[in-house]
């Protein structure tokens, strides 16, 4: 999830640094990554989606060297201002996720906000969207600022830029360092980027001065956050919550204080998830004819993996391994994987615990939705005639 206060490297021991690079991938990204690899340093590259989509081959090679690939939005906007003008900050994350997720299998996706600009409102907006929240950690800030762009813009030499970084690092003594392997928003400045040379000159001096380097996910608070489970509530279209009862039974709509509505969700990749009850057992369809969903499995196998099918505004269909969608058995008040087609599946609202759906649909949007539903019915009637 996203914190109101950004993560920094303040808790690192003295003489420990974490290298990060923003705005790529670009022409020098792989050379920087390769140089750091030979130096035994693992960095984090926060990438901009509009550049990543054109340079996926670079990201592949960078990731193979053991570096982390982070999310730096798709178009590099000032997120608080962008949100204030009704910009879709969730979309900025999700579009870039589609490009970087494959390099973060079985691990968190780390997020840095452009220019380091951040607000509680942006955090709340992102946390209100399950897909933008699950397995995400951010925002990642810095302790030693990325002055390289400013220096290249003013035609300051690499030597002077190295000296400025050394002064700032010596003053702080530790922390997250940011540099720029590419330069977003200022195309005229791209040919002046000399961060590859900066890196090659800076690292040997830092090593000789006794500095050591850690990867971003080794910073204690970040590592701890990445290990935390994300708990969600699941609500049916009729407004009834799923709850965990004795014996791992999943029941719907009973208002009993002894029942627990919080379930841990884990992203398994390829659009699949697992769900765990407070009994620490996974949702499964392995028992009772392979259709009744219970939280009674101690490991994740095929019968504990579920496809998450997004609809809109945190609304989802859930499909089990048997190819059937989950639906509520009204007579029993239980959950079963029995719906053969999407139209028979239950529509669930899934939100992180404590979060609310932020976006309300206007009357125009509601009318459009009704019209689409009517057109669907019309097309089915026409196909059957």
Automatic annotation (TrEMBL):
Gene3D superfamilies: 2.80.10.50, Glycoside hydrolase/deacetylase. Residues 15-214 form the NodB homology domain. It comes from the Bacteria. One of its GO terms (cellular component) is membrane. Keywords: Hydrolase, Metal-binding. The keyword Hydrolase applies. One of its GO terms (biological process) is carbohydrate metabolic process. InterPro entries: Actin-crosslinking, Glyco_hydro/deAcase_b/a-brl, NODB_dom, Polysacc_deacetylase_ArnD. It holds the Pfam family Polysacc_deac_1. One of its GO terms (molecular function) is hydrolase activity, acting on carbon-nitrogen (but not peptide) bonds. This is NodB homology domain-containing protein. It comes from Segetibacter aerophilus.
């Amino acid at each position: 999830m996203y914190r109101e206060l950004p993560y920094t490297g303040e808790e690192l021991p003295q003489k420990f640094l974490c290298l990060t690079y923003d705005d790529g991938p670009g022409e020098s990204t792989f050379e920087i990554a390769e140089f750091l690899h030979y130096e035994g340093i693992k960095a984090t590259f926060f990438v901009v989606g509009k550049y990543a989509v054109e340079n996926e081959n670079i990201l592949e090679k960078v990731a193979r060297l053991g570096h982390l690939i982070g999310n730096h939005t798709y178009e590099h906007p000032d997120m608080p201002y962008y949100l204030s003008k009704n910009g879709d900050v969730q979309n900025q994350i999700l579009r870039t996720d589609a490009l970087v997720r494959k390099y973060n299998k079985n691990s968190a996706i780390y997020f840095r906000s452009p220019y380091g600009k951040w607000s509680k409102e942006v955090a709340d907006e992102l946390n209100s969207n399950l897909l933008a929240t699950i397995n995400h950690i951010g925002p990642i800030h810095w302790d030693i600022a990325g002055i390289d762009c400013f220096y290249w813009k003013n035609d300051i030499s690499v030597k002077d830029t190295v000296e400025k970084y050394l002064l700032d690092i010596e003053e702080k003594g530790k922390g997250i360092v940011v540099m720029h392997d590419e330069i977003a928003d200022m195309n005229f400045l791209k040919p002046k980027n000399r961060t590859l040379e900066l890196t090659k000159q800076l690292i040997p001096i830092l090593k000789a001065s006794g500095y050591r380097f850690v990867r971003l996910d080794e910073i204690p608070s970040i590592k701890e956050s990445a290990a935390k489970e994300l708990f969600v509530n699941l609500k049916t279209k009729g407004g009834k919550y799923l709850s965990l009862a004795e014996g791992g039974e999943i029941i719907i709509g009973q208002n009993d204080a002894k029942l627990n509505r919080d379930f841990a969700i884990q992203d398994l990749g390829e659009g699949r998830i697992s769900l765990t009850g407070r009994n620490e057992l996974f949702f499964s369809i392995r028992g009772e004819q392979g259709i009744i969903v219970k939280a009674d499995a101690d490991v994740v196998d095929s019968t504990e993996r579920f496809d998450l099918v997004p609809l809109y505004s945190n609304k989802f269909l859930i499909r089990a391994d048997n190819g059937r969608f989950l639906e509520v058995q009204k007579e029993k008040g239980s959950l079963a994987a029995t719906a053969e087609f999407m139209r028979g599946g239950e529509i669930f609202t899934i939100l992180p615990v404590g979060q609310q759906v932020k976006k309300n649909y206007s009357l125009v949007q509601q009318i459009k939705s009704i019209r689409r539903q009517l057109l669907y019915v019309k097309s089915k009637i026409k196909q059957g005639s």
